[in-house]
Amino acid sequence: MVLAADQLAKTVAIENLPPERVVPVIGEALQFYLVRNPGAAFSLGEGVTWIFTIALAVVAGIIVFLAATRVRSRLWAVVLGLLLGGVLGNLTDRLLRAPGFPVGHVVDFISTPWMMPAIYNVADIFIVSMMISVALLVLFGLRLDGTRETRASREASAAEPAAEGAVEAPGEQGAR
C-alpha cells in the first residue's frame, strides 16, 4: 500500500511538476519542489549512492526476517509493514530510476520550509513516522511477540545474571 502510494505520487509529480521550481500548495506551509536526489537526507553522500541501495536492501531484509520469525503483535506487524513500504519505495527508485541500477536518484517533491529545509516524498514520511513508532513501542515496553515488559520482568531479568554468576564458596554447595 505504501509502496504503491509512493510510486504513484512520484509518477504524478514527475508528470505534472516543473523541475526545481516552487509550486505553492498551501502558501509557504506546503510546497511542491521536484528534485531527483542522488544522495541521502539533505543530498548527503551523492557519490556513494550504491551504499544507500545496499543499506535499504539490508533494512528491508531485516524487516522481512523479523516479521516472519519474531513478530506476533498486530501493532508491531502494522508498524514494520508500513516501514517496509517506505523503505521499498526509496529502494525502487534506487534500483529503477535514472541514472540506472543501483544508483538511481530518489524522486523528492514535498517541501515544508517552515518545519525543516528538506524536500522529501511519501516513502520518507512513512520511514520517519514509523521509526518514531518503533521508538515508542520500545519505550512503552511492547515486545515483538506482543507481550509487555513490566517493571517486575525487568527486575527479574536483571537478577538472573547476578544469580547465574554467583560463585559458591567451598562447603556451601546446595546451601541456596
Structure description:
With 176 residues, the chain is an alpha+beta fold. The chain is built from five helices and four strands. Strands 1-2-3-4 form a four-stranded antiparallel β-sheet. Strand 3 (106-111) and strand 4 (119-120) form a beta hairpin. Helix 1 (2-16) runs parallel beside helix 3 and helix 3 (74-96) runs antiparallel to helix 4. The N and C termini lie far apart (57 Å).
Tell me the span between the first and last alpha carbons: 57 Å
Low-confidence stretches: none
Helix content: 40-55%
Rounded mean pLDDT is 90
Specify the biggest β-sheet.
Answer: 4 strands, antiparallel
Number of helices: 5
Question: In what range is the share of β-strand residues?
Answer: 5-15%
What's the number of extended β-strand segments?
Answer: 4
Strand order of the largest sheet: 1-2-3-4
Principal-axis shape:
elongated
Helices and strands, in order, run as HEEHHEEHH
Task: Annotate the secondary structure layout.
Blueprint: H1 2-16, E1 23-26, E2 30-37, H2 49-69, H3 74-96, E3 106-111, E4 119-120, H4 122-139, H5 151-165
Antiparallel strand pairs: 1-2, 2-3, 3-4
Helix pairs in contact: 1-3, 2-3, 3-4
